Amino acid sequence: MTDNTCCLVLRLAGPLQSWGGRGQFNRRDTLDEPTKSGILGLLAAAQGLRRQDSIADLLGLSLGVRTDQPGSLLRDYHTVSDHRGRPLPSASVNARGVQKPTSPAKYTHVTHRFYLQDAVFVAAVSGPVDLLRALADALRNPAFPLALGRRSCPPTIPLLLTPDKTDRVDREAIWAGRTLDVLGQVPWQASDRHRSSRFRRDGRPPSVDLPVTVDDEDGSEVRVDVPHSFDPLHRGFNTRRVRQEWVRVPTGWPDTGQTDHDPFALLGW
Fold first, then answer.
1. Cβ within 8 Å of residue 181, ≥6 positions away
2. Closest Cα to residue 118, out of 69, 159, 75?
3. Rounded average pLDDT per 10-residue block, the chain, 269 residues
4. The overall pTM is greater than 0.85
5. Which domains does the chain have, with CATH numbers?
6. Cα separation of 44 and 263, whole Å?
7. Distances (CA, A) of 56 to 1, 168, 269
8. Which one in 83, 95, 167, 172 has a CA-CA gap of 20 to 30 Å to 106?
9. Pairing of strands 99-101, 27-28
């Protein structure tokens, strides 16, 4: 077994998730699937790495993400005011380093934060076996609280998925195969309600096609979500190339013999 021929598999599910893209200041957007920065941040938190610590080992990991349940977009609308009735401070500071008041005076600040609600993703992280085993141990006993993109979004359990006896590399959480292969092996993680609503017109098919995004140096799409560091004073991101794929996984329902293809079933119609 060599590097990048085995994976760690994470189930990323929770009431809310938020995977930041271009959002800043008073608007914080979310992408429709987890970012590499967000997943590496979760792994770093589990290991107990401080923001100034090196993440060189984590940057070498290859990532694949499968969307099992896309969820829906939620906008959280906020207004911020000073409880003393004073004008809000501005982003600039005076010579003594004290924040200046807004000019003209601003007493209410409006912010918009976006989340994915009730979404479920499966992430396969590929890399050296020793590193994956260390990460699995850290995820079982995390040093810091884990979050799905933001601190206010804790994951539900199970977070770490283990392979079946016939497929496992060892008795721990390591899966054999590259990211795309492994994502085709992991059972569908969607909720019963989502499964039923997705196929309410077509009965219960034995398999389902799920979208996957995998790291690929020759991929046609570019993502800007590979962090230089998590140090707030040295934030920055590199690019990575990815490609879009589909994998077919069992639904867990018996095969009824139906083979007709309905493209609208993928849209839940």
1. none
2. 69
3. 78 95 74 95 96 93 97 89 84 83 84 92 96 96 95 94 65 88 95 84 81 95 92 87 95 61 59
4. no
5. 6-76+94-186+216-247 (3.30.70.2660), 190-206+251-269 (no CATH)
6. 40
7. 22, 27, 45
8. 95
9. unpaired
